[in-house]
Amino acid sequence: MVEPQIIYRNEPAVTDAAVPLADFADGTNAAAVRIEPGDDVRALLPHLSQVRLVEVNFPAFGDGRGFSSAQILREAGYTGELRATGDVLVDQFVFLRRCGFDSFAPRKPLNLDDVKAAEGFFPDFYQNTSDGVAAIWAKRHKVAP
């Protein structure tokens, strides 16, 4: 698996190009879709080949539904850009990456040094996810992830 380039934008997300999932489901030909908490991202699965950007909104840092949306998309084979927007915190970067996010557009600017430090904080994990990194138990027992 090729490591995706991390695109961090220290500015508000540009969301006017992404259409809400409900509008996309109504037959638009948009190539960018915005997922809100409560949206059923599985409605997007039959159309993954036409979508090049999926923005997943995190309106509050404690709302983790976007993690599930990202994991569902990556497990279904989505390879386009997956962007976390909204109330995205440095503390969440490692976990967002593990679920497949490869770009970030937080509502509030983040310190780039903090972002880089957060990315290397955990060298091993116990859970399998879509990032291709083997779980620590698989490494210990030489089992495929």
Provide an overview of this structure.
- The protein has 145 residues and is an alpha/beta fold.
- The protein has a single domain, classed as Rossmann fold (3-Layer(aba) Sandwich).
- Helix content is 24%, strand content 17%.
- It has five helices and six strands.
- A six-stranded parallel sheet has the order 1-6-5-4-3-2.
- The N terminus is likely disordered.
> How helical, in percent, are the residues?
10-25%
Alpha-carbon Rg, integer = 15 Å
Shape, principal axes of CA atoms: globular
Number of strands: 6
Q: State the name of the first-level CATH class.
A: Alpha Beta
List keywords for this structure.
145 residues, alpha/beta, 6-stranded parallel sheet, disordered N terminus
Short précis:
24% of the residues lie in helices and 17% in strands. It is built from 5 helices and 6 strands, in the order ββαββαβαβαα.
